[in-house]
Design a protein that fits this description.
Largest sheet: 6 strands, mixed
Number of helices: 3
CATH class of the largest domain: Mainly Beta
Shape: elongated
Strand order of the largest sheet: 5-7-9-11-13-14
CATH architecture of the largest domain: 3 Solenoid
Structural class: mainly beta
Length: about 220
């Protein structure tokens, strides 16, 4: 049987680099990733590291799919995830997704999620998102509008994903440990995040091409 080298793992100074073959189809990449993470699950068990994707250009949906496979097949814990595959193509109205943890919603609406988001869960919304709970590390929200979290925000959030530079991110406890994106800009946080686990309301907004983070206590 021909060996599938669509995915190659390499160790880097800051964590694990996942090299993706630019010529491979996304189906081949997901197959290879599942095979390799499953066979090396003992190696990854209990590890805590950063994860960097390089090679084939991916959409945000495809990145989340790869993260889900890694989460399913290993006990790897991400301190943060970085996409260096090139500018992602954001599809805000994606085709039906096989994983029920994804929740595409009707366009131009505000979606109220009345539970916390766990690792591996995601919300994709044409409009704004309000979460009545926590957004835990490994969870993701992609919205064309604003994102408000009435709880702790520790996961990955992309507000204004259609290019809306006026979108903002607000949380009762702003402790991002991964990535915040607004429009076409992003900022990556170290694994420990902000706030030392204390309640620290804050918000993030885009100004002059940079993402700014402000806390209520500092205003």
């Amino acid at each position: 049987m021909k060996k599938n080298n669509s995915v190659i793992f390499k160790g880097g100074k800051s964590g694990i680099i996942v090299l993706l073959d630019e010529r491979a189809s996304f189906k081949d990449i997901t197959t290879a990733l599942r095979e390799k993470t499953r066979s090396a699950s003992g190696f990854f068990s209990g590890a805590q590291t950063s994860l960097v994707f390089k090679g084939k250009q991916l959409t945000e949906d495809e990145i989340v799919t790869l993260l889900e496979i890694i989460d399913e097949e290993t006990n790897l814990s991400f301190t943060f995830v970085e996409d260096l595959t090139g500018p992602a193509v954001t599809e805000i109205a994606p085709p039906p997704l096989p994983d029920p943890s994804f929740e595409p919603k009707p366009a131009d609406d505000t979606y109220f999620h009345k539970h916390s988001l766990r690792n591996g869960q995601a919300i994709i919304q044409n409009g704004s998102v309000v979460v009545l709970g926590d957004v835990n590390s490994g969870a993701e929200i992609i919205a064309t509008g604003n994102v408000l979290v009435f709880g702790a925000l520790r996961g990955m959030v992309h507000a204004g994903s259609g290019g809306n530079e006026k979108a903002f991110i607000c949380a009762m406890t702003l402790q991002p440990t991964q990535v915040l994106r607004i429009a076409n800009e992003k900022v990556i946080f170290p694994g420990e995040g902000f706030g030392d686990n204390k309640i620290d309301p804050g918000f993030a907004f885009l100004k002059d091409g940079d993402i700014h983070v402000r806390f209520v206590a500092d205003i």
